[in-house]
Amino acid sequence: MAMIDKIQALSKEYFDDVVFYRRHFHATPELSMQESKTAAYIAARLRETGIAFGEGVAETGIVAHIEGKNPKSRLIALRADMDALPIHEKNRVEYRSANPGVMHACGHDVHMASLLGTARILQALRNEWEGTVRLIFQPSEEKYPGGASLMIQQGVLENPRPDAIFGQHVYPGLPAGKAGIRSGNYMASTDEVYLTVKGRGGHAAAPQENVDPIVIASHIVVGLQQIVSRHATPAIPTVLSFGRMIADGQTNVIPDEVTLEGTFRTFDEAWREQAHLRIREVAVFIAQGMRGDCEVFIDRGYPFLVNNHRLAANFRQYAGEYLGWDNVEELELSMTGEDFAYYSQKTDACFYRLGTRNVEQGITSNVHTPTFDIDEKALETGMGLMAYVAIRELSDGNKA
Question: pTM of the full predicted structure?
Answer without folding.
Answer: 0.94
